[in-house]
Design brief:
- There is one protein chain.
- By secondary structure, the chain is an alpha/beta fold.
- Helices cover about 15% and strands about 30% of the residues.
- It is built from 4 helices and 7 strands; from the N terminus they run E-E-E-E-H-E-H-E-H-H-E.
- It has helices at about 65-75, 95-100, 145-150, 150-160, and strands spanning about 1-5, 20-25, 35, 50-55, 80-90, 125-135, 165-175.
- The longest helix has 11 residues, at about 65-75.
- It is globular.
Amino acid sequence: MKIKLNLGCGRDIRKNTKGEEWVNIDVANLPGIDVKHDLTKFPYPLSNNYFDEILSLGTLELINADFIKIMEELSRICKKGAIIKIRSPVFPSMCSAQDPLTKKFMTWNTFEYFDGSWHYSKARFKTLKREYIYSLNPKLIWLSFIPNLFPQFYTKFLFNLFPSNNIYYELEVVK
């Protein structure tokens, strides 16, 4: 059975299914929350090397805490080889700064910091996937293939002409 964490889930409560056990964590005391916790407080009340996967949809950029500590904490609670799936507004789109709660901006290269070539964090992640999401609108999401054809060229030269709203990452925990 895979054990998955729905980080900062809000009202998006994930239900257990055959082969998947979900733990829903949020600061708000909402129906379906398994763990009520302020994600700016360390350590998180979760066991070491416990999760096979973490899902963070629009959460990491809102946590008003040291980003490196957050990532180290996610590494601590994950098993070796666990997958962390992150969706966040991408900088410099309007979506990245329209929410007054945003504390951290995400870019194409945000998680390269944790690839092992930097020496300021013990957390290590291998980027398995990263892609721009042009829009979450079902009628426009198909346009996401355009910035992902040549993402670095797009980032440098075309982003301001044809801005994507979000970015999606899949990271593998390296221990």
